[in-house]
Write a structure and sequence with these properties.
The protein is α/β, with parallel strands linked by helices and 380 residues long. Helices cover 40% and strands 15% of the residues. The strands form three sheets. The protein has a seven-stranded mixed β-sheet, with helices on both faces. A four-stranded antiparallel β-sheet has the order 9-10-13-12, covered by helices on one side. Strands 1-11 form a two-stranded parallel sheet. α9 packs parallel to α13. Bound molecules: pyridoxal-5'-phosphate (PLP).
Length: 380
């Protein structure tokens, strides 16, 4: 079979071999971590070691970590916690993932969308003005912002945003799903009252995530069931996945190697795009972005057509946000950027990961050139 080239790591990544090996070992553990016998305690040890490894590698030593089934569940528990703590106004970034935006709108009567600037960054001046005004209201506000965007990779200035939020006595929820393992933890982890992460974008397991709670953050500890994860998330924990999460986290503490390699591939790829398609628009190119992410549009070459043409030639990329995939519609950030609908329909995302090489860059560029030639001759 022809080797496929996988360039959709912001959707999910291939399991790293060292993580797979660790998970296979954990599969042999038979105890329920809530049982008090030897086998149960063996299982519990793996959970507690993973909890410690994650908190330590992020430098969030005083946080309480709750394991969940993924980032979506973690985000929704965070929103429920905010509500239970009496926060009544939800300020949500315009480009947030639907796991947060849609659930916030469902949960809070008062949800305010924070606009983003032309690069996709949170409009900090707007946020500050709104929070200043909210000080005079009886309703307590909280703010939910992503550390890095899944589609164009734009990085929000978390230190600045956190300063504004704290200055006005509000609380901060940070979706760090795309930041985890791609950005230094100092740039996102310490600022959050609620921090949401999951390991499957960097070669960790699917179906597991975590919510980290800063000291003093409470609420919503009443999920009916066995009371696991201190009542936040009842249900017997997924031991192999949690163990794999703990093991892959070593990569999140120091991202230097990943960032250097991914940036080299991404920058070479974008250079080739600019040379071969001078009218291409690369979103957020001059802004602070994740090192592995390139989102661009070649005018009049629809994302749908490009993704299918590349797929048929053995290259996987994404159009729109793969998190809401299946449909090829303009994503939250494209709408927030206020670009024309026509250009948004041409936006595709290439995201590099731990197992890509320079060969993959050559291969995607040559595949795109072939596909473009066929497209043009068909149109002629
Ligand atoms: N937040 C961001 C920024 C994401 O990119 C994703 C998924 O890709 C999620 C949240 C939801 O993660 P999951 O589908 O793993 O629950």
């Amino acid at each position: 079979m022809k080797m496929r080239i996988y360039l959709d790591h912001n959707a999910t990544s291939k399991l790293q071999p060292f993580v797979k090996a660790a998970m296979m070992e954990a599969m042999d553990i038979s105890g329920n971590p809530s049982s008090i016998h030897f086998d149960g305690q063996n299982a519990r040890k793996l959970i507690e070691n993973a909890r410690k490894a994650i908190v330590n590698s992020l430098g969030t030593y005083s946080a309480e970590l709750i394991f969940t089934s993924g980032a979506t569940e973690a985000a929704q528990l965070a929103l429920e916690s905010a509500k239970a703590m009496g926060f009544e106004v939800a300020f949500i970034g315009a480009a947030e993932h639907p796991a947060i935006m849609a659930y916030a709108k469902q949960l809070f009567e008062n949800t305010v969308v924070i606009p983003v600037d032309g690069d996709g960054n949170i409009d900090c001046d707007w946020l500050e003005a709104q929070l200043a005004q909210a000080q005079n209201s009886a309703q307590k506000p909280f703010v939910a912002v992503q550390a890095a965007n899944n589609e164009i990779g734009i990085i929000n200035p978390m230190s600045k945003i956190s300063g504004i939020v704290k200055n006005y006595g509000a609380a901060l929820m940070v979706d760090a799903v795309q930041a985890f393992g791609k950005m230094p933890p100092n740039d996102y982890a310490g600022f959050a009252d609620w921090l949401i992460i999951s390991p499957h974008k960097i070669g960790g397991p699917l179906g597991v995530g975590a919510l980290l709670l800063a000291p003093g953050i409470e609420g919503a500890r009443n999920r009916p069931g066995g009371g696991q994860e201190k009542g936040f998330r009842s249900g017997t924990q997924n031991i192999p996945a949690i163990h794999g999460f703990g093991v892959v986290t070593v990569l999140a503490g120091d991202v230097t190697e990943f960032a250097t390699n991914a940036r080299a591939h991404r920058d070479e790829f974008e250079l080739q795009i600019m040379i071969n398609w001078p009218d291409a628009v690369i979103f957020g190119q001059g802004a602070n972005r994740l090192p592995n992410t390139s989102c661009f549009a070649i005018p009049n070459w629809s994302a749908e057509h490009m993704v299918i043409a590349l797929d048929l030639a053995g290259v996987s990329i994404s159009s729109g946000s793969a998190c809401s995939s299946g449909s090829v519609k303009s994503s939250a950030i494209m709408l927030a950027l206020k670009i024309t609908e026509q250009l948004a329909k041409c936006a595709v995302r290439v995201s590099f990961g731990w197992n890509n090489s320079g060969y993959d860059v050559e291969k995607i560029v040559s595949t795109m050139l072939d596909a473009d030639m066929r497209r043009r001759s068909a149109a002629a």
